[in-house]
Amino acid sequence: MANPYEIPPEMRDFAERSVAQARKAFEGFMGAVQKTTGTMEGALTAAPGAKDMSAKAVAFAEKNVNSAFDLADRLVHAKDVQEVLAIQADYLKSQLEAIESQMKELGETVQKVSGVKK
């Protein structure tokens, strides 16, 4: 008896192609963001720490979106519902850790820029 939760190969192929296309589009978008950020660098030097904060925000966004693409890739290749749930649990745990680390790093940067001591 066929597994009712099994994804047909055609649908899996379509999902793989869709994730790859979305990732490629995002990479193009990030290239444009980095180019724009480089162009605005002169304006950002006027505000202390703005350049550093902007660079960190872009890097964090890129990392988080790439993590979501990695999740999509893993989900497309999941064999069953249990694997999907395990993948989602791992992703949630790693993203919470990443966000905690990112917020800590941004907080430290803000303190450094504002001159506030710990």
Low-confidence stretches: none
Overall pLDDT confidence: 82
Order of helices and strands: HHHH
How many domains? The number is: 1
As a whole number of angstroms, the C-alpha radius of gyration is 20 Å
Task: Estimate what percentage of residues fall within beta strands.
Answer: under 5%
How many DSSP-defined strands? 0
Major sheet: none
Helicity, in percent? Answer: over 70%
**Estimated structural class:** mainly alpha
- The helix tally amounts to 4
**Distance between the terminal alpha carbons, to the nearest Å?**
63 Å
Q: Sum up the overall morphology in one term.
A: elongated
Distinctive features:
118 residues, elongated, mainly alpha
Folded structure, characterized:
The protein is mainly alpha-helical and 118 residues long. It has one domain. It is built from four helices and no strands. The protein has helices at residues 9-39, 41-44, 50-76, 81-114. Helix 1 (9-39) packs antiparallel against helix 3 (50-76) and helix 3 (50-76) packs antiparallel against helix 4. The radius of gyration is 20 Å and the shape is elongated. The N and C termini lie far apart (63 Å). The mean pLDDT is 82.
